[in-house]
């Protein structure tokens, strides 16, 4: 079992989908990652920042799920990062209505002493300069550094982001972002170009069309489970990243073969996350439910073809 260090935004989200609207609820990359990874009972910690407007009950929720929250700084008089988004009818695309960085704008992360030797570092979505600082604070070289990011950081902080990308083993991004980053429309060409920027493994997420894992000329494809109803896709990418890194931390095996399983675990947890607003579904998800759906995944993708 490896230790998992998570860095990422902790946020208030206001979400609008064709099915309803929320006021400010718990969001941000790190809570989704942490809650997903907690399904593997790994030792994990979140490095992040909130303002003193952030409810204690949200911090308690993370702590109750065995996530070390001692490195979530609370800034007196500060305002928590805020994001709002509105989904289109197909739920595959959304518009960001507002991003207020607030306390995230000048955050100086501090990695807890007992996580400076973590086997996995999961760099969730937030400022590339913060992600870089976390990498630099590690005292023992991590066995795996995974990066998740989004177009917001590509648009205005590309230079910093490229510095981070050069230092990571795995990058997980969605198809549009892979195209933006590489300048290539074909995802195969995009992955090849992103390999040259640093990451040996490139995961491209395609929403309801699954995810692709590229490594060394090999490609693995994991479908997304066809769901009857998708309620709110927010955090699906982060949940995927949490399931992916949580499973790898639990198994402490960073081979390509095992990474294929990690992609399936990530996709499995993401399929639950989209069923309710925000982190609600992850909060009330039993091991039994996770296991049953994993079996569904297996039968969905298994076939016995004769190659003669
Ligand atoms: P996802 O749906 O996986 O892209 O993740 C959505 C989450 O990312 C929301 O909970 C937001 O609070 C968070 N988020 C949105 N924009 C940013 C940003 N620029 N930096 C960090 N986190 C963000």
Describe what this molecule looks like in 3D.
The model has no long low-confidence stretch (mean pLDDT 95). With 308 residues, the protein is α/β, with parallel strands linked by helices. It is 37% helix and 24% strand. Strands 1, 5, 6, 7, 10, 11, 12, 13, 14 and 15 form a ten-stranded mixed β-sheet that branches. Strands 2, 3, 4, 8 and 9 form a five-stranded mixed β-sheet that branches. The longest helix is centred in the last third of the chain and has 18 residues, at 256-273. Helix 1 crosses helix 8, helix 3 (128-137) packs parallel to helix 5 and helix 6 (175-182) crosses helix 7 (187-197). It starts with a strand and ends in a 7-residue tail after the last helix. It has a single domain (4-301), classed as Ribokinase (UDP-N-acetylmuramoyl-L-alanine:D-glutamate ligase, 3-Layer(aba) Sandwich), CATH 3.40.1190.20. Strand 14 and strand 15 (218-222) form a beta hairpin. The chain is globular, with a radius of gyration of 18 Å. Bound molecules: adenosine monophosphate. Adenosine monophosphate is lined by residues 9, 11, 13, 27-29, 83, 99, 125-126, 150, 152, 234-238. Adenosine monophosphate binds at residues 9, 11, 13, 27-29, 83, 99, 125-126, 150, 152, 234-238.
